[in-house]
TrEMBL record:
Signal peptide: 1-28
Name this polypeptide is given: Endolytic murein transglycosylase
Molecular function GO labels: lytic endotransglycosylase activity
Pfam families in the cross-refs: YceG (PF02618)
Organism expressing this protein natively: Paracoccus gahaiensis
Catalysis: reaction(s): a peptidoglycan chain = a peptidoglycan chain with N-acetyl-1,6-anhydromuramyl-[peptide] at the reducing end + a peptidoglycan chain with N-acetylglucosamine at the non-reducing end
Gene giving rise to this polypeptide: mltG
Lineage, opening ranks: Bacteria, Pseudomonadati, Pseudomonadota, Alphaproteobacteria, Rhodobacterales
Assigned protein family: Belongs to the transglycosylase MltG family.
PANTHER family recorded: ENDOLYTIC MUREIN TRANSGLYCOSYLASE
Keywords: Cell inner membrane, Cell membrane, Cell wall biogenesis/degradation, Lyase, Membrane, Signal, Transmembrane, Transmembrane helix
Length: 394
């Protein structure tokens, strides 16, 4: 009888323990898969060679997870305990342990933490050291350097050597190929000498993730491949009757449109003016092409055009030549390429600045002359030269 009672009690205890274990497992699964404790975004940083134990304790300490043991057990159950990838990964508020395990074992480019950003701009190139504020999800500038104005700051040089730093390049629409090469040459963490500047217009403005030790020429090839794909897509989808014989001619027009207006909504209108002028045999008469003929795309012309430059016949002086210049004058973005191939249907033949950053468009020379007169008044009020070139009926 005693042995029967002992066996009964043991069985009861075993059942209770099994139920408790099942309940504990169910709770742990809910903890692992359910919303995490952090009410703000978290930048989860994994050091090279870090162990799962160290990472789980780090995450618990920063409030990203509720239980380091459950995190380790869950990672092990998923077969990912040995798959940690170093880097910095931005996790949204309330991210579950399961989501965090997925992020830190999948790898890829860092999505938070420190970033060194190379910005290729129309007026200047710059290198910016930024750090993400995980609470806002926005990068905050820590240091900025213009390579044309002195030595690299120590803090930027140090950041470029960090194991998990995010390296990227942003190429603005309308920059020249020379400007891109200058920016790449200033990036000391890249390798390879650029022997020849890529053809104007052949590089796609975009954001590019970089790697320490990456080859400059390989990056330029990636930019060119992307631009070629964009141009091919837009050319294939073009409407019938456009005044271009080749995709390259469309690219030339796109570069002019890109340089003529900084307002995205105006691109199709600007393109319509130039397309209408081409169809009517009128000269394009656009300053950016003349400026490119003066600078060769190497820097900006920080002054007005001189009368002698406007009177000199060059392949890029569209006040003196018929049709398009021989090459693009910058690297246009997809929107400008699309506008060149899909201009608005208008009867505009002229445009001039209107003082707001945009342009006044006109159908007739009389309308245009009135718009020019208004622009001359604005120039005078702003103390600007009042003899800047404008389109005529030539």
């Amino acid at each position: 009888m005693i042995w029967r009672n002992i066996a009964s009690n043991f069985l009861t205890l075993a059942i209770v323990l099994l139920i408790a274990a099942a309940a504990a497992v169910a709770w742990a699964k809910r903890e692992f898969s359910g919303p995490g404790p952090s009410a703000v975004a978290q930048c989860v940083q994994i050091a090279p060679g870090a162990s799962l134990n160290a990472v789980s304790n780090q995450l618990a300490a920063q409030g990203a997870i509720s239980n380091a043991y459950i995190f380790r057990a869950g990672a092990d159950a998923l077969g990912k305990s040995r798959e940690l990838k170093f880097g910095s990964f931005l996790m949204p508020p309330g991210a579950s342990m399961e989501e965090i395990v997925g992020a830190v074992t999948s790898g890829g480019a860092s999505t938070c933490g420190t970033e060194v950003l190379i910005r290729v701009g129309v007026r200047e190139n710059s290198v910016i050291l930024r750090d993400m504020n995980p609470e806002t999800g926005a990068y905050e500038d820590m240091a900025r350097w213009n390579p044309a104005e002195g030595a690299r700051p120590d803090e930027i040089a140090a950041a470029e050597e960090l194991a998990d730093v995010r390296l990227s390049l942003v190429m603005a629409e309308g920059v020249t190929s020379w400007q891109v090469v200058e920016a790449l040459n200033a990036a000391s963490f890249l390798t390879g000498e650029v022997a020849e500047t890529p053809a104007e217009g052949s590089l796609a403005p975009d954001t590019y993730l970089l790697e320490r030790g990456g080859d400059r020429n390989a990056l330029l090839a990636r930019m060119a491949e992307r631009q070629a794909a964009i141009l091919a897509e837009e050319w294939e989808a073009r409407p019938f009757g456009m005044p271009y014989e080749t995709p390259e001619e469309a690219l030339i027009m796109a570069s002019i449109v890109e340089k003529e207006t900084g307002q995205a909504a105006e691109r199709p209108q600007v393109a319509s003016v130039f397309v209408n002028r081409l169809r009517q045999g009128m000269r394009l008469q656009t300053d950016p092409t003349v400026i490119y003929g003066v600078t060769g795309g190497q820097g900006i012309l920080d002054r007005g055009l001189r009368r002698s430059e406007l009177d000199t016949t060059t392949p890029y002086n569209t006040y003196r030549i018929d049709g398009l210049p021989p090459t693009p004058i910058a690297n246009p973005g997809r929107a400008a390429i699309n506008a060149a191939l899909n201009p608005d249907e208008t009867d505009y033949l002229f445009f001039v600045a209107d003082g707001t950053g945009g342009h006044a468009f006109s159908r007739t020379l009389d309308e245009h002359n009135a718009a020019v007169a208004r622009w001359r008044e604005i120039e005078a009020q702003q103390g600007l030269p009042t003899d800047s070139p404008v389109q005529t009926d030539g």
